[in-house]
Design brief:
By secondary structure, this protein is of the alpha+beta class. The chain has 2 helices and 2 strands.
Length: 77
């Protein structure tokens, strides 16, 4: 039996591939004084990778804080 996480990962990867293949048109990104022209699939992939990176950093930080709290609780008793 396939685990739920693997199934969700595969579904997400398939959806990402479909989005990438269906969006080759160029778009212009503007941020403050910077402007750049990219293919829409590059923007989608970049946003996905940044989202994955921030999620890994956030969950790691939360686990660290919970571990510190648990250590403090264990020291009291």
């Amino acid at each position: 039996m396939i685990p739920v996480r693997l199934t969700l990962l595969l579904i997400g990867a398939i959806l990402l591939v479909l989005l990438v293949l269906g969006n080759p048109q160029p778009v212009v990104l503007s941020f403050l004084f910077w402007r750049g022209s990219f293919a829409l699939y590059e923007v989608i992939l970049g946003g996905t990778l940044l989202g994955i990176l921030f999620t890994i950093i956030y969950t790691g930080h939360v686990r660290y804080i919970l571990r510190i709290k648990q250590d403090r609780i264990n020291r009291r008793y």
